[in-house]
Write a structure and sequence with these properties.
Largest sheet: none
Number of strands: 0
CATH superfamily: Farnesyl Diphosphate Synthase
Shape: globular
Structural class: mainly alpha
Distance between the termini: 28 Å
CATH topology: Farnesyl Diphosphate Synthase
Mean pLDDT: 89
Helix content: 55-70%
Radius of gyration: 19 Å
Strand content: under 5%
CATH class: Mainly Alpha
C-alpha cells in the first residue's frame, strides 16, 4: 500500500534460463496471446500502446509482464471481500513458483508469463515483490508523507519499468539494469505512479481510499473527509487542488531527472529501452491536461482517462526521436 516499502523492489533477482530445471514450456498458441493482449488493451491501454513499439521477438513477453501487472492490480476492485482478494494473490504467488519450473497454470496471463519467464531473465523471485505490494493495497493506508508515496511508486511502477528493461535485453548479470538506464526507469516509474494517483483521485475518493500524502494534505488543511467529497464534475476544494498541483510538480521533477540522465545513455541503449520508457510521454500528456484545468482532478474534461486517438502517433514520433 502507499506508505510502505515492498521488500526486494530495488534489487529483483534474475536467473539464466539454464539455472531453471524445467523452464522450457512449449510455445503457447497465438490465440492465448491475442486474448492476453486484448485484456491488456482494455485494462491498461497506456502500457499496451507502449509495448507495440517493442521488437517483435520481445513484444509478447513485454505484453505478458504488463498483463500480469494489470491483473494483480485489479484484484482489489474485482472482488467484494478482502479474503477473496488475498486468496487470488496467494494463487498468483504460488503460480509464479510453478512458472519458474516451467509449469504454467491454466490461466491465459499465467501461460503468457510462463513463456516470457522461459525466454527472458525474469524469475518468480523478481516478480514476488509486485504481488507483495498489491497485498498491501488490500488494506490501503494514507501515506504519511510524499516520500512514502514515492517509495510505493518505486515498488510498483518503478519495478515494472526495471523488469521491462530486462525483457528488452538491458539487464546486468547481478539483476540490476545497467548504470544510468536503471535510474531512468526508476525515476519514470515513480513519475508514472504519482500521475496515476492523481488520475484516479476522484475514483479513489468515492471508494474511500486516500492516497494524497498526509503531510501534503495537512499543509493545505485537507482532511480525508474533504478528499471524500471529490467527484467528477464538481469543483474540488481549493486545498485539494493545491495538494494535487504539488504532487504533479514532483512527478514532473522525476521526469526531468530522468531526462537529464538521458544525456549519459548511448544511442543503442536508448533505442533498446524506449518501449519501457514511453509511458513518460503519456504521463506528460495527462499532466499537461491537468494543468490546463487548473489542477482540479475532478474537472469534467478529465473524465476520459485513456490517452486518446492521437496517442499512437505521438508515441511513434517520440520513439523515432528516442525522446521520453
Amino acid at each position: 500500500m502507499p506508505g510502505q516499502d515492498s521488500s526486494g523492489a530495488d534489487s529483483p533477482s534474475f536467473r539464466s534460463r539454464q539455472e531453471r530445471p524445467d523452464a522450457a514450456p512449449d510455445v503457447i498458441d497465438d490465440a492465448v496471446h491475442d486474448l492476453v493482449q486484448g485484456e491488456l488493451r482494455q485494462r491498461d491501454r497506456d502500457h499496451y500502446l507502449c509495448a507495440l513499439f517493442a521488437p517483435p521477438e520481445r513484444r509478447r513477453a513485454l505484453m505478458a509482464l504488463y498483463a500480469f501487472n494489470a491483473e494483480t492490480a485489479s484484484i482489489r476492485d474485482a472482488v467484494s471481500e478482502p479474503m477473496i482478494a488475498q486468496m487470488r494473490l496467494k494463487w498468483w504467488y504460488d503460480a509464479l513458483a510453478d512458472m519458474d519450473r516451467g509449469h504454467a497454470p491454466g490461466h491465459p496471463v499465467a501461460e503468457a508469463l510462463a513463456e516470457a519467464m522461459a525466454a527472458t531473465p525474469l524469475s518468480a523471485e523478481a516478480l514476488y515483490p509486485l504481488i507483495e505490494a498489491r497485498a498491501e493495497d488490500l488494506a490501503p493506508v494514507q501515506p504519511g508523507d510524499l516520500a512514502a508515496l514515492e517509495r510505493y511508486g518505486d515498488a510498483t511502477a518503478g519495478l515494472v519499468s526495471r523488469l521491462a528493461l530486462h525483457i528488452l535485453g538491458l539487464g546486468a548479470s547481478d539483476g540490476a539494469p545497467d548504470g544510468d538506464i536503471g535510474d531512468v526507469a526508476r525515476q519514470l516509474g515513480i513519475a508514472w505512479a504519482l500521475t496515476a494517483t492523481l488520475k484516479a483521485l476522484p475514483t479513489h475518493a468515492r471508494q474511500g481510499y486516500f492516497y494524497l500524502p498526509a503531510d501534503v494534505c495537512a499543509a493545505e488543511g485537507v482532511s480525508p473527509e474533504v478528499i471524500s467529497l471529490v467527484r467528477f464534475g464538481k469543483p474540488s476544494p481549493l486545498g485539494v487542488v493545491v495538494a494535487v498541483r504539488r504532487i504533479a510538480e514532483v512527478a514532473r521533477a522525476h521526469m526531468e531527472a530522468a531526462r537529464v540522465s538521458r544525456r549519459r545513455l548511448s544511442a543503442e541503449t536508448l533505442s533498446a529501452a524506449m518501449p519501457a520508457l514511453l509511458p513518460a510521454v503519456l504521463a506528460d500528456q495527462y499532466l499537461d491536461r491537468l494543468a490546463a484545468v487548473g489542477f482540479d482532478p475532478a474537472d469534467r474534461r478529465l473524465v476520459r482517462s485513456d490517452p486518446g486517438p492521437g496517442a499512437l502517433i505521438r508515441l511513434g514520433w517520440n520513439a523515432f526521436r528516442r525522446r521520453y
